[in-house]
Structures are given as C-alpha cells and as structure tokens.
Specification:
The structure is a homotetramer of 285-residue chains. With 285 residues, chain A is an alpha/beta fold. Chain A contains eight helices and 13 strands. Chain A has helices at residues 20-30, 64-75, 102-110, 129-134, 149-162, 179-184, 205-212, 247-270, and strands at residues 7-15, 34-43, 48-56, 81-86, 92-97, 117-123, 138-141, 167-170, 189-193, 216-223, 233-240, 274-277, 280-283. In chain A, the strands form three sheets. A seven-stranded mixed sheet of chain A has the order 7-6-5-8-9-10-11. In chain A, strands 2-3-1-4 form a four-stranded antiparallel sheet, covered by helices on one side. Chain A has a two-stranded antiparallel sheet with strand order 12-13. The termini of chain A are close together. The C-D interface holds C 41, 43-45, 50, 196-200, 212-216, 218, 232-238, 242-244, 246, 279-283 and D 41, 43-45, 50, 196-200, 212-216, 218, 232-238, 242-244, 246, 279-283.
Chain lengths: 285, 285, 285, 285
C-alpha cells in the first residue's frame, strides 16, 4: 500500500460475466504495465463486478493522455464504467468546520502523510481561524442565517471553484448542506457523523445515546447525499462506554473515534480505494 | 471477581446525599463484615445514588435471615431501595430457543462456569431438542400459532412456575413475548437482539444492515420490556464487516458476537452486578 | 464468501514478474471457468507473488483429474508452486485436547458450519471423553509420561493415518509435540496459544501477563513448527483486562478469545485461504 | 467523571483489613465532605487495599492546608500511604520528542481539554521546533552524542527544575533516559512504546512485528523505570494488520494507536487515577 511515484489506478464497475479480469490484466500485460495491486469483487446478488487495479506507468506502452481512449476499447464490450487516476495528480481539498477543533487538528496535523493540497478552511464561525492560520491555511468565515443560506452557499461554491477544489470535507461542520450544493460535488463531499449510523440520525446523537443507555458509541464517515445522514458509508468505528459516562464524557470519548474515522475515510478516498454503487461503498485496500 | 463461597451482596439505589457510603460501610464494619468488593455510582444529572457492596458472611454478626430487617433500619432515613443476594442461593434459569443453535450451545457449554441451574429449554420448534438432551436438559416443545399464543404462554408460565424459574433467557427465540408474560418476570427476561440497538430494531436486522452498507454489525443483550427491542441494555458488542460480506456472511459473523454478548449479560445478571434504573442499567464489575 | 457446491481453488506462489495475473485468468477464461473470487498479493520486499483464485467448475472445459497437469503448463515458465483444492473434497480433522473443554465445545458445536469431518478426539486425559461422546465423536485416551512419549506419538500417528486425517487441531492440548510428529503434518497442525505471541511464550502465559500488569490479554492460533510457539501465525485477537482481573479472571476472559481465534483459524484453513511463506501467512478472505 | 472546580482526591494504599472504607468515608462525612467518586480495590493475593476517593471541598470542614495532617490521624492505625491532590492545582508537563510529530501534535492539539500547563518541549533534534512554536510552546534543542549524555541530561534537569515541571512525557523521544534522570521523576515520566509490551522490547518493534508476521500491532504507555520498557503499564491498545501491511504501513497504522494510548495515559495521570504498586498500576476511572 506504499505509494509509487508514477502509477495509474483504474476503478471499474460493470455487470458480472466471464473474462473480465482476464480482459483487464491482458490489456495491462500487453502494454508492458506491471500490476502493483489488484482487487476484485463480485456482488453475486446484484450480478455486479467491481475492480481496482493499480500499475506502474514506468515503461507502460501507452502515453497517459491516451490511456482512457485505449482502455475504452477494452471496456466497451463489457459495458464497463471506470475512473482513471494518476498518482502524480494531487487532489485539492477544502475543509468545512464549525466550532469544534478536533477533526480540523487531526487533518491538518497529518495531511503531510497524504497526497493532497488543502488551500482553504471554511467555517460558519470564526473560532477556529487561529488554528488554520497556525498551519498556514487560509480561513474563510461565512456566517449563515436561516435567510441567507442560498446566497452563502453560492459564495462558498464560487470560492471552491476558484480554488479548483476536488473534495470537500465536513469536519463537524454542523450545518445541513443543500441538495444544490451537494449536486456540485457528487460523491466528493465526505461528512463525519457523531454516531454509529443508522442509529441516532440528526442532531445531538450523544444525548440520544446517553438517554438510550447504549454500551458503545460510534462515528460514521459517509459521502453526503440529499437525504440527511443517509449517504454511502465509507468507515465506522465504536468505543466502549458505561454508566459512568455522562453526555460530556461520551462527547469526549466520541471525538477520538470521530477524528480517526474521518481521517481513515479521507485516506481511502485520496488513494482512490472507494467505489460507490447504489448507496453502498466497495473499499479496496 | 472470583466468587467467595459464602458472601452477601447488596444492590442499593436512592436519592444522592452525603453520608450514604459511610452509612453502609459503617453498618458492615460494626457487624464484623469484611468488604470484598464495593462499587458506587452517582448520576449527577438525576441526583441518584447507586451502590453494590459484597461482603464475607463468615463471622458476620447478623444471621442471614435478619440482614434484611437490620439493613432496613440503615436504609430508611435515606429512602434506599435495595436487593439482598446470597452467593449460596443458586438461581434457576430457563432458556427459550427457536431453530438456531449457537446461543444454546454457548450457554450449555459454559454454564458449569456459572452459579446457575438450567432445568429446562423451551422452544416453538423441535429442532434443538437433540442438543438439550445431549446436555441432559429437559426440552419442552410449544408450537405457537397466531391464534393460540395466549394459551401457549399460559402453559409456558405454568411450567416456569412449577420449576421455580428465576430468570428467562431468550436465546434467539424469534417470538415476541406478550406484556402479560413479561409482567411475570420484570427485569428477569434477558433477550439477545442481533443488531447494535437502536439501529435495526425488529426482524431481519442483518438484511437491513447489509442494505445500508454498514461497516460494523453488532448484537445487544437487554432486559425485555413491553416495547419491542427497547428495554434496558446490559451489553453490546460489534464486529467489522466489509463489502465482501453477503447477508449470509453477516449472519455467520454476527452469531459469534451474539453468543458472547448474551453470555456476558447472563453472567452480569447472575453475579448480581446489574442495577436497572429508568430504562438504563448500571453494571458494576 | 458463501461456498459454491462445485468450485476449485488455486493457491499460487512464485517470484514476482509481469503477466502473472493475466496468465492465470487467461487460462481460466479460455477454459470457460467463471472466477468467483480472486485475490492477489505482492510482497515487494521479497519480490514474491501470491494468488488465490476460486472458480466455478460447472462448464469448465478441463476435467478435474487433468487440471493439475494443464495448469502445470501455465505455471512452469513462471516457476509457480501451487495447491489445487476442490470444494467437494471434505477434509478430515482430528482434535487433540487435554482437560479444558472450551475449545473442544466451540469446535464441536460449530463444525456443522464447516466442510469438514471430525472422526476422532485424542487426549492425554480422560476428562473430556463425555463431551466427545455427547457429540457422537470417538474419543481416544493416550496417557503420556516423560518416558513413553515417543511410543505414544507413534501410536497416535498410526491412528491418524488409519483415519486418513488431513488436519490436526491442538485445542489446548498442553503437550509439546515432537518434531518427528510435526514432520508428518507440515503446515497441517494448528495450535491455539493462550497469549498474544510473541509475548509470553511457553507455559502459564496468563500468570506472566498478570505479573507484568498488561492491560490486554490475547490468543494466537498458528501452525506448529519445531520451534515452540514460533510457527506461522494465522490469527490473533485480544481482550481488555484491568487491575481487578485476577489470574483466574484472565483465564476466564482469555478462554473466549482462544476459542474464537482458533475457530477463525480453522475456518481460514478449511476454506483454503491460507498461504504459508517463510514463517508468515498470507490470509486471503 | 466531569471535573468539579474545587475537589480533592485521596489515593490510598495499605494492607487489607476490615473497616478501611468505613474509616475513610466516615472521616469525610463527619467533616461535611460530599463524595463525588469512590473506587476501591482489594488485591486478595497480595492482601493489599487501594482506594481513590474524590470529594467536594465546598463546605468541607477542614481547611486545605490541614487535610493532610487530619487525615494522617485516620491513616496511621491502618498503615496507609496516601497522596492528596487538589483539582485547583495545575500540574506542569514537559514533552520530550525526537523527529516524529504525531504524538506531539496529539498532545498540543488536545491539552486545552486537560488541566495542565506545558511550558516546554525538549528534543534532541530541531525538526519539530516549528510545531511547538506554532502552538506557542517553547522549544529547547539538546543534541546528544554518546559522550555528552550525562552533561546534556544535567542541563535538561536544570531546565525542568527551573520550570517547576511535575511530569515528563517521552512522546517518541527515541533516547534511553539514564537511571539518574529517572530518579528525579519517580513515577512521573510517562513513555509511549511502539509495541504491545512485553512483545518487541527495544528498538524497531514494527520491523520485528513484521518479521514475526503478527496479526495485530500495539502500543504501550508506561512509567519509565531503570529497566528498559519494563515499567508499570498505564495503557495499551492494538490495531489489526495483515499480510498486505509493509513495515511502513505498520508504522503508519501504529502511529494512530500510539498517540491515543499516550493521550489516555496522560489523562489518567492528570486526573490522579493512577496508583502504582510493585510494577503494576491500579487505574481508577
């Protein structure tokens, strides 16, 4: 899973049938591509095929700009849909926050581990401006009221476009993003929800968890879709609690799970390990 | 936590105020009772006090039959409610099953570890009769239809009464027990639900979990109350799943969690470590 | 991961080079084999390639008896070593136990889930005879002293041979098996060690764990090799302990981990998901 | 477990005998101290008694300066040793680092959650100076060679004394601290070791773990004693790895465990929840 300086990755989906793996690996072999990682998954119930293959571009016979076209010839008879990613293309990520710093700290203190650029942090509150600046990242404060949300979102979208943002992270943003906004970044907005979904959808999940007397609390990172807290789940984890844990203690323990679950989800996305189908994810890696 | 041959346990609840621990420990000390284990919990929000204290009865100045009365004098000014248990009293437990054997096997293969007697297994299907007999436990087959449920439950209750049953375990019984039935065993019916409650209440939780694309599945053991899958939770745990896990795989992985979660819940109950308040549990130990 | 009635599995190792996956998948495709599962792993450091591929034999062009020879033509130029398994061949497994029943119970109560036959249980003590008989499995009592170990092992080997045993499980056998014995079942003896190896090798690991004051205890299932507790690890897991846990409590909690870890290891082996290389394992699945 | 603005905590050890809890709770009750949290533990094997009690100082009859003396009268007949802590006294903590930033980031980004001051970071390398400064913490660079270690440690001790440091954190410091140094901070130096001790003591534990083929890797936070990696363990945790994880992947995954385990250990210490006895810890909380 260590990253090679010059690799390409194909993420492929199509109806399942014989010869799919052979077709793809043959294509790579004949063009002198050395496979670094190959994962394949068949959903027998849906008769759907999924594949991720990563290969070394060094000595690969097809120039980068032509791979899509050439692979299209392989893909067509199988009705494959695919994404092609190059390890040398660095994605650009914006972080949306509100008042809580733990997820922001986690991302900023580890993003040197990832192949990503973070041109800006956006927030509806000014509280975390100091942290962003401390890490040399621009901070944009967009206060939101019930009345001006559409205008604010439009301004945010302008800013994201100007910065050529590929991926939006809602790092405890605490605002519901409109379907219009989501439509600009399909499967490219990752949220962290502070519960083990689908338990405790919506606001104040730790209060609900405390009231229900659960023995584990959790966090869920998912792609944002128009339906609240219902998008494809990328990663989840839990931590044990007991009767001694007040709501405040649950919030404290939950933060550690939230920040790690979000970091793992971002990493999967950045390594092109995530394939969304229906409302679910295949995570290769 | 090893069990002493001759110990007593008090489980105490009352409104919180000063001097509660001192009053109880003083009572034991003055009567020559050596404390083996003491746990105490204050729910600050509810201003409620909970305590579990276990002490050696050897050399204890008060005869067993008089402890309740004598402790009543300590308890009265604090409005304490309490349960008194003796380690030498062996509880009697009935197991309700349906067709799946894993929880039944788990209980029967480990109950020599517990201080409990299991006079009978009850089922709405005959499938597991052989297993019960293999372990030398009586098996009673009560087929149930929509129409005769009240009569069947009445017959089951008769049988339980005849066998002086203290505790009922629903070990994947797959039947909803009526409020009348539950009323005979308040906080003495333990169920294992095959999901991480409150997610996936009701039937076929693994199918729902698979459809939602969760990355962890779980199991919940709880006291049965009139509201379905909503009683006080005793124990929960989870196991990781991924896109490769079909519903059948989830069911298979889930079984390991179910049986261990149920076994832990039963053990807590048998060791008198559980205090129910409202719809929650305090688990001491 | 659900099992198909009529499938074949190839487990392949060889030096890494281009075209390996393509060669294998091409072979299957051209012979009308539908791939059910394909996993591949490259150890870049060792420049070693590993692959597991499972395909449907229905409509496969090559008769079962000829697959090995035909695949040999594909394998030769790549210096592949391989194992070929058929899902219709049921392995035969012997269980070695001593006095503790939990692992034996676990195996016997779940082996209907596996494709395996268990013709016999062998023990150096008579304690668990009743359990084996309860499950309808033959029990052979081989008392062992320091002086007669070679003769006893020879007799055990005779019995295993007579029963055409493929796999030996040391389910808390508590005896060190000789290198001669091991030589008869290379990579086919699975042990469960009651610690998180390599911590606490040898006897009484829970006592050592308690003395060291660890906060987690574990269990390790591994193939047995001539060096004590040092063979290739198949599966490990842990459980949390704290200062309240006596040695006896650790033993009790540890049992739950031991039996599940052993069960998972056996399952991996039976599904032909394990490839041993050097002193390590690749677990596909 | 939420902290009260004005509370006191007693950590008590003594030989076990009757009346210990009664004596302490009586003392508090008679002096109008409301118990906020009481935990007690008996090590039956060692016949040792341990207790942590936290009470509200508001309305407590004894002035803070006299509590030690007054409690001494209670403690003497029982041969109690004890520590008395006030929630209003803020401990002062120094962090020793080397080149890896993850533990430093974790501490600096969360220490607003803790009652602690961090006057300085000390390192044998200059790499992390920017991070310390970013968080407004002084950074002191002490290069160390084999020859000047005693002088460097003496200078470090001077600096610690000057800053009235109570607690030293070795946050992946990668240097062995001398017994002389340790003697100045008995049970007040906390290290994070990047393995599940006692497995893989010493340098390069992830390399050893990879070579051994373990299926879980871990981290251990412990008090530093003269014997390397052998001090009383405060906290441990693990994370799953498999054959796909290279040494570099293990290092990456391990960092997440290391930083959380260290943060939990520091928190336990700062909340006065840790009692050391022999080479083990009692963790109340």
């Amino acid at each position: 899973m260590t990253e090679t300086p010059n690799a390409a990755t194909l993420l492929i989906s199509c109806p399942d049938r014989k010869g799919l793996v052979a077709a793809v690996t043959d294509f790579l072999y004949k063009n002198n591509g050395n496979i670094l990682q190959l994962d394949q998954h068949v959903d027998a119930e849906e008769s759907a095929f999924f594949m991720r293959v990563e290969w070394d571009l060094q000595n690969f016979a097809i120039p980068r700009a032509e791979i899509n076209a050439k692979f299209g010839e392989v893909a067509a008879p199988f009705q494959m849909t695919w994404q092609l990613h190059f390890s040398t293309t660095i994605p650009r990520m914006a972080i949306f926050v509100s008042k809580q710093p733990h997820c922001l700290y986690e991302i900023l203190s580890r993003y040197h581990e990832w192949r990503v650029e973070i041109p800006l942090v956006i927030s509806n509150h000014a509280d975390l401006q100091g942290i962003a600046h401390r890490f040399g990242v621009n901070f944009h404060h967009f206060p939101i009221t019930k009345d001006d949300k559409p205008q604010v979102e439009a301004a945010q979208l302008d800013l994201l476009a100007k910065h050529r943002i590929d991926l939006v992270i809602l790092a405890r943003y605490m605002q519901i993003v409109s379907p219009e906004f989501i439509g600009h970044y399909p499967q490219r907005i990752i949220n962290i929800h502070h519960s083990f979904l689908p338990a405790f959808i919506g606001a104040k999940p730790y209060h609900s968890a405390h009231a229900r007397g659960v023995k584990l609390i959790g966090a869920t990172s998912h792609y944002v879709t128009a339906e609240l807290d219902a998008g494809p789940i990328i990663e989840q984890d839990v931590v044990r609690v007991d009767h001694r844990d007040t709501v405040d203690e649950m919030i404290r323990k939950g933060k550690d799970v939230e920040k790690l679950v979000l970091a793992r989800a971002i990493r999967h996305h950045l390594l092109n390990q995530v394939l969304v189908y229906g409302n679910k994810t295949v995570i290769f890696g």
